[in-house]
């Protein structure tokens, strides 16, 4: 059985592909308050604004390309059993060639029924418009887990982390729950590597190795080291 490497990625993974998060600008996301565009209440209050916002995110994603960190992780699959759990809603891991990806917070490339979250469609090339309906006749919404909504993939993610022989955390602040709690599911003694340009603020991380730097710079080096050990 192949050695299992679990990779947990956040916004810093895709930052060097040009995709930003609201934390880059003091709680604003592309000049929008999160409460106005990324909550169930915002969707009920002003669905037109929410759709405009996510259509623009989708347009930006289609112009972005995987960076060196995405490409390096895909190379790991030649020697290891690699599972990626991501907080990101982009498809850059997939486009880089990684095969096993669990999206915690949804996917910009998909939309879903407003009545049944299991009825999922590809996002139209031009994005969603008011009047785009699911098979039940209900308005389609972005396939995104908004703030205040449950995270259905958490149970599966916790199980995957508990099976890891090595946990690599890339580009996440580890302050957004419940996703940040995933690292606590790692078995005692499992090595944890955290790649992030910032300081680590948790006493737990005395058991973790901190690689300080941007993902696109640090991850290709780490991957080459792991491949040389395989």
Structure characterization notes:
The structure is a single chain. With 230 residues, the protein is of the alpha/beta class. Helix content is 30%, strand content 21%. The strands form three sheets. Strands 5-4-1-9-10-11 form a six-stranded parallel β-sheet, sandwiched between helices. It has a three-stranded antiparallel β-sheet with strand order 7-6-8, with helices on one face. Helix 5 packs parallel to helix 8 (215-229). The two termini are 13 Å apart. The model has no long low-confidence stretch (mean pLDDT 90).
Attribute tags:
230 residues, three-stranded antiparallel beta sheet, 8 helices, elongated, single chain
Write the SSE topology.
Layout: E1 4-9, H1 11-14, E2 28-29, E3 32-33, H2 34-37, H3 40-45, H4 47-63, H5 68-76, E4 81-86, H6 92-96, E5 101-103, E6 106-113, E7 120-122, E8 140-144, H7 154-162, E9 166-170, E10 191-195, E11 208-211, H8 215-229
Parallel strand pairs: 1-4, 1-9, 4-5, 9-10, 10-11
Antiparallel strand pairs: 2-3, 6-7, 6-8
Helix pairs in contact: 5-8
């Amino acid at each position: 059985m192949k050695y299992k490497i679990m990779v947990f990625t956040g916004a810093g993974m895709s930052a060097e592909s040009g995709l930003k998060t609201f934390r880059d600008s003091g709680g604003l996301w592309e000049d929008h308050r999160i409460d106005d565009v990324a909550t169930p209440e915002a969707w009920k209050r002003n669905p037109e604004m929410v759709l405009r916002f996510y259509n623009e995110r989708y347009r930006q994603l289609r112009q972005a390309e995987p960076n060196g960190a995405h490409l390096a992780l895909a190379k790991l699959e030649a020697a290891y059993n690699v599972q990626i759990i991501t907080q990101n809603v982009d498809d850059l891991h997939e486009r880089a060639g990684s095969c096993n990806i669990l999206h915690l917070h949804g996917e910009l490339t998909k939309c879903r029924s407003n009545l049944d979250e299991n009825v999922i469609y590809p996002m139209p090339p031009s994005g969603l418009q008011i009047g785009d309906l699911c098979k039940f006749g209900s308005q389609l919404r972005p396939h995104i887990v908004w703030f205040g909504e449950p995270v259905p993939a958490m149970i599966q993610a916790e199980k995957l982390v508990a099976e890891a022989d090595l946990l690599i955390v890339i580009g996440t602040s580890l302050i957004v729950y419940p996703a940040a709690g995933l690292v606590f599911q790692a078995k005692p003694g499992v090595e944890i590597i955290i790649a992030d340009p910032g300081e680590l603020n948790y006493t737990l991380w005395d058991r973790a190795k901190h690689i300080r730097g941007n993902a696109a710079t640090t991850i290709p080096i780490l991957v080459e080291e792991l491949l040389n050990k395989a």
